[in-house]
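User: Can you model how 5,6-dihydrouridine-5'-monophosphate sits in this protein?
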Amino acid sequence: MDQLFNLDANPHTRLNILTGEKVLVSPHRTKRPWQGKIEDVSPDNRPKYDPKCYLCPGNVRADGAVNPEYTDCFVFQNDFAALLEDTPLENLNEDGLLVANSERGLCKVVSFSPKHQLTLPELENDEIVSIIKIWQKEFKELGQYDWIEYIQIFENKGEIMGCSNPHPHGQIWAQSSIPEEILKETKRQKSYYAVHRKSLLSAYLEIEQKKQERILFENDYFVVLVPFWAVWPYETMIISKRHVTGIDLFTASEITALADALKQLTIKYDNLFETSFPYSAGMHQAPVNDLDYPEWHWHMHFYPPLLRSATVKKFMVGYEMLANPQRDITPEFAAARLRDLPEIHYKKR
Ligand code: H2U
Ligand code: ZN
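Assistant: Here's the modeled complex, given as structure tokens:
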């Protein structure tokens, strides 16, 4: 038997350098037969305007508010916000056994475009630029509240991800404490920065650029790759080449380049299974109003659930719920597949 440890063939764990967590990779197992659940694909033939959609211009939302006849992006306070501004500040701690802390926050919904039928990959570059500028503006404005410590900008796309409406939109949740994923990533980035005086992701980008095994593409300001430690089959990250702590610091050139990266990545995703590709995606950046975070390096995560086709998704169950996330196809295989896909959206071919 070949005794050399081989990332393409032997079961192994990989370290997520941002969180300190591990993923189990089982590359020998990709031929496993599938007789499990097949998802329904939602039909992708939506009208440009849907009179029943709560995001379309001029329509009435669930709580009775009326959307303006907007022509670009449109932001509103979430009518069913998970976090509320006027929450009383109180903590509960009974012998360290029953512990609860009140959480204040603000939640917003961002409609990406008045056009009901389009999603990110089908929007024009300048329309995506407008979305990024809205994110930037919201980030700066929400950061002005002295009680807000973290601002999460994200998009939940597709019915399979529990997205409530196909109209292209994202959300922003701003809150009074730092959430778990951000605490983990802060800790890891801080300790790397303390030793190396360089951001963890700058060093990571250098090694990925040298190896060229997991990079899908790059432009002047951003690299798009499947991280070495990816858990979801086609998980990716967009990482800024410049070490900046947050979206507020992007220049006009960086905004254009980010729009380009977002469009290209989501086109590849749609092309993979020739379907409107579902995912949860969002950016991670430094907390606000608290301490200095020189170690923080802006990036975006894309977590798509699909595994094998538009209808077969990966389940995070069993061993994964009880012990550790696990994957079969390697991140290198996923990156090669995505890299080789056309740059033109399948609907336009
Ligand atoms: P998704 O991104 O997961 O689809 O969630 C959409 C949000 O839109 C959801 O948080 C809000 C819901 O509370 N919403 C409104 O604010 N007003 C409405 O009229 C319907 C939905
Ligand atoms: Zn709509």
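A couple of observations from the model: The chain has one domain: 13-29+49-348. The first helix runs from residue 125 to 142.
User: Helpful, thanks.
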